[in-house]
């Protein structure tokens, strides 16, 4: 199913997307989902980020061709970094070009949404802690990333983590290992085209690695890396991330202020 978070007439809720309607659920989707029986036309609702993560853990250089295009080697162990909750925006929300950068770049990624609190998850139990998957854009101030040893500002500025448009639960880890297409377009022109089958490390290994160190909470998000083809964005650009079997996440870049 596709689980969306939405706002309508000042009320925020979760719903299961069925055709052009949202079937509102009671409470939250982290547990057994109970439908309320209320249905809302999708056109009348504003889609929000599908979850509000406590933390977003991103994985760097998890596609060999992307590592190579930036002059990097594939690391011996996963490179992980945080994007704060304040970086998360939803579908159609505006990306604010950071005032301290001259080189904002897109990175289309598959996002894993965690469904329950977990720690020290063995690889063979990874599927048990996943709610589903979403599209994400790991926006990066590339010049700042190259200039500063820590990536906090380059990767964590406000609006640097578009996420959505919903959480798709009907995808398996085997599907992802076999290959699901990832595409990024800018103003309708294709810039990235890759497959999850090209990940250096699969999702079970990433979950095991991350949860060795920290507890993941329901709604936390793991970004799994980007294929080759990253490049610049300018104010006025419309960037769209499309992932097979999930959907399309679209955002427009604006100048700050």
Automatic annotation (TrEMBL):
Record Pfam families: FAA_hydrolase (PF01557), Rv2993c-like_N (PF10370)
GO terms assigned for molecular function: acetylpyruvate hydrolase activity; isomerase activity; metal ion binding
Annotated keywords: Hydrolase, Metal-binding
Keyword Hydrolase: yes
Protein name according to UniProt: Fumarylacetoacetate hydrolase family protein
Taxonomic superkingdom: Bacteria
Ranges of residues in domain Rv2993c-like N-terminal: 1-50
Domain Fumarylacetoacetase-like C-terminal positions: 55-253
């Amino acid at each position: 199913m596709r689980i969306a978070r939405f706002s309508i007439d000042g009320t925020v809720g979760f719903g299961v997307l069925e055709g052009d309607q949202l079937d509102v659920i009671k409470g939250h989707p982290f547990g057994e989902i109970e439908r309320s029986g209320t249905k809302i036309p999708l056109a009348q609702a504003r889609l929000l980020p599908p979850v509000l993560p406590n933390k977003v853990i991103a994985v760097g250089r998890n596609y060999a061709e992307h590592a190579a295009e930036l002059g990097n080697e594939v690391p011996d162990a996963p490179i992980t970094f945080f994007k704060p909750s304040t970086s998360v925006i939803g579908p159609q929300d505006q990306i604010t070009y950071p005032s301290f950068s001259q080189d904002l770049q897109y990175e289309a990624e598959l996002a894993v949404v965690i469904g329950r609190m977990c720690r020290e998850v063995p690889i063979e139990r990874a599927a048990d802690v996943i709610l589903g998957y979403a599209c994400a854009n790991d926006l990066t101030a590339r010049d700042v990333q190259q200039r500063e040893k820590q990536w906090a500002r380059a990767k964590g500025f406000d609006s640097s983590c578009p996420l959505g448009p919903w959480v798709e639960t009907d995808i398996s880890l085997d599907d992802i290992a076999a290959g699901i297409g990832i595409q990024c377009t800018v103003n309708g022109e294709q810039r990235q085209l890759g497959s999850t089958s090209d990940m250096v490390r699969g999702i079970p290994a990433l979950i095991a690695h991350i949860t060795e160190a920290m507890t993941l909470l329901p709604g936390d998000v793991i970004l799994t890396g980007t294929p080759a083809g990253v490049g610049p964005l300018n104010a006025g650009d419309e960037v769209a991330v499309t992932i097979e079997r999930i959907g399309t996440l679209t955002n427009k870049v604006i100048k700050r202020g």
